[in-house]
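To whoever is on call:

I kicked off a structure prediction for a single chain this morning and the downstream step that reads the tokens threw a length-mismatch warning. I double-checked the sequence; it's 240 residues and nothing unusual in it as far as I can see. Pasting both halves so you can look.
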Amino acid sequence: MKGRKTENALNEAEISNRSLEQFAGVAAHDLKSPLATISGYLSLLEDELGQALPGNEYIPIIEGAAERMRKLIDRLLGYARLGGKGIPFEEVDLNDVLKTTIQSLHSAIQETRTQIISDPLPTVHGDFELLSQLFQNIFSNSMKFRGDGPSEIRISSNKEPHEDFYVFRFKDQGIGFDPKHKENIFELYKTLHSGKRYSGSGIGLATCKKVVELHGGRIWAESKPGQGTSIFFTLPVKPK
């Protein structure tokens, strides 16, 4: 009887996850359509009237807001789709993931004068795209909260002989945060810093947590104000 209840609960959870993904897809489509209309008419007004348009200096502001909304919708959709079902895991060389991520973030890395230093990384069992998203979100978070001047991100990995998982550490030299917040920085929509410079959706680290958990690992952070942040996560050596 207990086993049947557990099976029913799992089936209900799976149905709920599928419903959430379907809803997210429909919602994303419905929200993107008016955004595309707004952006299209703004471009049309700018092309046809240009400087003659009253208040034309506000067009870039409106376009920027529409673009931020589009990115937020994409991030929410991506988060909702991380259900874990139907993702075929395979051997992934994390050195290749690192290389791909650095290429994807080339402009941001150059703009923020960020130096990325990494030990040789192992091969794990997982999904290349999801692990790339994990790396990219951690890098983006470090660059956003880098403080003044150039920044540096150091990557290391370790595995104890008796353990069946790797421990990874991404350490930056950013502004850090109060240790009392270390338990909730991976919550959806959670942001610790205010102001235009540090504005964000609060989805990036929540996505990191979900990606790591889908791979059978866990993620946590250590930090102090003004002393940078270290993001740690584990990934199993072999599939579970």
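Update from on-call: the warning came from a stale cache, not from the record. Cleared it. Sanity check on the structure: Residues 2-49 form the longest helix (48 residues).
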